[in-house]
Structures are given as structure tokens and as C-alpha cells.
Amino acid sequence: MENSMRLFMESLKLFPAGVNSNARIRREMCPSFAPCTLFIKRAHGSHIWDVDGNKYIDYRLGYGPVILGHSYEAVRQAVHRHDKDGLVFALENEIEIKVAHKVQKCLPSMELMRFANSGTEATMAAIRVARAFTGKEKIMKFHGHYHGWHDSVMFSTEQKHKKYGRKIMPASLGVPSEIKKLVLVEDWNNFAAVEKTLKRHHRNVAAIITEPIMGNAAAIMPHRGYLKHLRELCDRYDVALIFDEVKTGFRVGLGGAQKMFRVRPDLTTVAKSLGNGYPIAAFGGREDMMNMIRPGKVAHGGTYSANPVSLTAASTVLDVLMKKPVFKRLNWYGRRMMAEIGDMLSAHGVSHIVQGVPEMFQFLFTRREEISNYNELQECDMILYAAFQYEMMRRGVMFDEDGEEPIYVSYSHSKKDLEDTLDAFEDSLHDALIPRTPVGIDTRLSEKVKIL
Fold first, then answer.
1. DSSP sequence for 325-374
2. Band of residue 29 on the pLDDT scale cut at 50, 70, 90
3. CA–CA distance, 127 with 394 (Å, rounded to integer)
4. pTM surpassing 0.85?
5. Can you list the domains of the chain with their CATH numbers?
6. For residue 163, pLDDT beyond 70
7. Among 24, 140, 201, 403, which lies 20 to 30 A Cα-Cα from 88?
8. Beta strands 205-210 and 138-142, pairing class
């Protein structure tokens, strides 16, 4: 990591913490595995190269956007055919109509929509619409669900919240304390708790916002009937149901998680896989709610919203998803990888689970048979996961060092990539499981993991 370290030391003089997003800071829990953030030179297909010349099979995929593969040729060509005509107009263009029709075909719940530039913008706008439509101000969210970094949702998103028990804590300094009064937080998958809280506070609750699959917490799945339970509660108490499908939208299927679980939200946010890496997002839903957006009512804007370059990328991505066997490939690849990882860990007597869906999943070191919420996730051995991540990187396979971030697969991942990944995983087992770090003994490795 010599070149990455050199660049990191230089970036520390220019950027707070040396990065342009806090998520890029290597985890403090295992500094011996991650002395600095990694600097990337290029990426193509299923691979990514760092500035030190190391090549990796990439399963981070930019935290999920890259569903087709890095610099996917059809998308790249389409964008560069169009960028000669201009990059931003701050006026309407025909492409936005074409893309909206395609989005609506995949997600019929988005009766009307607006384009934005990021998932954070989309969730911020959806919450504003819900508040305006219902005339209420509070929202309900869940521990460990991340909906972007705007003030309204920056509560109980990180591990440190556990030490405060049920107390709702902001995940950032600078969030006004008064905003906490407008946020209710419950445990995911707790049918009774959410019903009790909503029954008590529904007169003031505008929306429940939820990831239908916990894409920022190791792909924790909803219990059977849980999302339908939320839908029924929202109908009963006149509360808007917002599905944050920034990660699941166009990744777990063309119809997203709402089609998978057969639950129609009032409002939906999508982003990452819509652009295969180009910055684009959208939010939309019921016509009566979305029609609140207009001068004199709900404000929404953005110079770069619906810019033709990102829309061209999105249009091409959706065409590929609709016409090629993308989800068949992702399903096959992910299922095989999940099964083989589970079999190898079982063969070595390591207590674990593998959870999620083939398109986004994670393996966790735990004695539990299932992880249902964020508190249970904190009991997993993330130190051991970081050791595995380090050993896999040494062998040319890149997972995120944060075990809460899922493993993603893309259409560009090949059979050889899968074989090389599984070979690397099996080869990593011994080095990852012994209680050491690259600089010596690490007594922090948890005793929760059983090694026979």
C-alpha cells in the first residue's frame, strides 16, 4: 500500500480525515489491517486496480451501484454519444420522459416521479412530501437503517447507538437536538413494538421510512409478513409508507424489493443500480402525494437533476436489465457463492450464517441461527470479519472491510471470477482464523467464534 499511503498522507493536508466521504475511512476497529484508505486507479468489468498495481475481483462495486460491471461498454458508448450535445441544461429534455416510462414499467407504484442526484436527496424529498401530504411532522425509522446523511434521518445508524440502549442518538455532531423530537426509532422486525409506538404517536407521524432489506446492515431480511404488517399499520393510521430502495431498487429484480415481497409503498426512492455508477436517483409514488410538489407547496429542485448524461446512462442500464439475462446470472452466481462460503466455514467448524439474497448478501460470524435486527448484528464478530477481508485482499478479492456492508455481484462477474474467489476464500481460512494481525498477536479476536 505504499502509493496509497503516500497519497493518503498528502490528502490529509487537503481534506478532513483525508477523504471526501466518511465511509471511505478505513475502520478504526482494525487499524493494523487497514493503515490507510485505498486509492484506486481504474476499474473495468468485475475488476478494480489500486495505485500500487494490485488487481482485485470487486465485490464492493461502489457500495452497490455497479450492477452491470465497471465501465460497461453499452452504457459507456451511449453516454459518450450523448455528451457531445451538452452535459447540463437546467431545462427539460426528452430523455427524462423515456426514462420515467421505463422506471414506471418496472415500478408501477411510482405513478409520478422526480429525478434527483443521490439517494440522500431522494429520501429527503420523499420525507418532505409525506409531511406535506399528511400535515404531520414526525417520522419513524429503524435502528441500523441508513437513509442518507441529511438531518432528519441521522439517528441510530451506527454501532455506537447500542451503548445508549433505547435512547435515540444522532449519528453526527451538528444535527440540531430539536430534530430528535421529530424522529421515532424502533427495532427492525419487531411487529409488536412498531404497532405499539404507532398506535401511541400516529396523530403526529407522517411516515414510516424503511429499507425493505437492510442494505446497510449486512442484508438483514424482513421476517415473513413484516413489510405487509407495516403496510397495514400505515393504512390504519393514515401514515405514508416509504420504501428506501436506493440499494435494492433494480438490483434484487426489476421490480425491486416491493415486487419481491408484494407490498406497494406510498413513496419509493431509488438510486444506485439505476445508473451503474453514474450519479442519478429518483423518488416517486402516489399521484395525490407527488402532486404536492409545485411552486407554493412542496419545494424540490436541483441544477443537475434529470441531466441528460445521467439519464442516458439510466436509460441504457434499464434496457440491458430488461433485455439481457442479468438477474439470471446474478442469481446463479450469488447462490453458488453463498452456498460455497457456508459450506467451507461449516467444514472448518466455524459458527456462522450467510444471509441476504443472491444479488446482495453477507456472511457473519455468530452462534445465532438468524440475525433479525441491528442489536443482534452487533453481537457478530466483526474483528474476525476484518481479518478475513484482509486475507482476501491479499489474494486479490475485494470485500468491504466493514462487515455491515453487503457483498454485491455484477453481470460482469465470470465463472472464473467465482472459482478464483472461492479458491481465495478457502486459502484464506487458516490465516484469517489464527489469532494474529499483520503486526503480531491480536487478543481482540472474539471467543464467540467456535473453531473445532
1. -HHHHHHHHHHHHHHHHHHHHHHTT---EEEEETTEEEEE--S-S---SH
2. very low
3. 43
4. yes
5. 2-70+325-441 (3.90.1150.10), 73-323 (3.40.640.10)
6. no
7. 24
8. parallel
